[in-house]
Amino acid sequence: MHVAFAHHEPIDATKARWSAICRTLAAMAKQVPVTWLTPDTPARVDAFFENELRLTRPIALSVKTLPSIRRRLGITFNGVFFRACRKAVVAHKPQVLWLRSDKLAAYFAETMQASTRPPIAYEAHLVGELWAKDRGASDSSCQKIARLERAVYSGASAVAAITQGLLDELVARFGFMGPTSVVPSAVDTELFARCWSGAQSNTVVYAGTLQFWKGLETLVRAIALKPALRLRVIGDGSDKERAALRVLIHELSLESRVELTGRLPQHQIPAALANVACAVHPLPPQHSIAARFTSPLKLFEYMALGLPIAASDLPSVREVLRDGENSRLFEAGNAAALADVLAELCSDKALAGRLSAQASRDAQEFTYEKRASRLLQLFARVQ
Prior knowledge:
Layout: E1 3-6, H1 17-29, E2 34-38, H2 42-53, E3 61-65, E4 69-72, E5 75-77, H3 78-92, E6 96-99, H4 102-111, E7 120-124, H5 128-134, H6 139-155, E8 158-161, H7 164-174, E9 180-182, E10 200-207, H8 216-225, E11 230-234, H9 239-251, E12 258-262, H10 269-273, E13 276-281, H11 288-293, H12 297-305, E14 309-312, H13 315-318, E15 328-330, H14 335-347, H15 349-363, H16 368-380
Parallel strand pairs: 1-2, 1-6, 2-3, 6-7, 7-8, 8-9, 10-11, 10-13, 11-12, 13-14, 14-15
Antiparallel strand pairs: 4-5
Helix pairs in contact: 1-16, 4-6, 5-6, 8-14, 12-15
């Protein structure tokens, strides 16, 4: 099987999805030839593999650089890349075209007849219309996204979704009847090998972005309720998100107890997490992407490192975590409930150790090799 993966955005090391994309591509290329259609040069791809992931791009993962005009006078010109991508797909003749860009998937569905292009296997990470509503988009913008998504699912031959909740929503909303699979996010278990010691017995860690739907306000308010606890936030966001977090920390007089490290390269994260007491996944309940659709990298990285985890009790989380077995779950959005769970994990070493061991074992089911195999099994159903 020859797989082509196409994406119109250049690599951006500040976005976690690029680590996931590149690791999945590398794992897949160990099993089948993969052609990556991208605006990036092979040299830039190789630099990301080396500097961010500490990996070497596999020989079977070939990089085809396509012309692209990203921005001019504030406007993004996707059409240049899209047209070049269509020509490249015709020239390379892959058995499967794997996409995770809704815009690119809709373009192929609308501009090429099914008989003249390879089957499209679309990897879904959210419902765009619901995500737009969560961000306060206008009705017209939401309707435009809904039309785009209808084109995606009418043209796709197979769909992979990162959670069962997302797949159920897609089938119900768009009536997709083709082959499907749930393919969660993954973790490099060599880089993220179990190393938890819990030496810093009062330090709680959050690793991830500062986006509004990540639940950081709940976490910071929980820290304020337990004066013995400290918080380390590893990650970054926009200027606005960073400023809002600093304002909240100041309002709660937590400057001496909250450390903001900023973003770290992925290969530096294990060492930054090894000694903390526990890790937090504090998603709020009011956003669909958090409650049902997300499969965040940090969750699997926490697990593989063997960190005791405090996580929101939400459907997306319960697809991976089990309260009292590999984590402690708390009522989503409830700062007091989270504070109690954090205090418990920091003080009960026996519980923390038991959760740590089980989480590390469970993480072995979410390697990039297994993720690539799940995708390839889905692709084989549409050849």
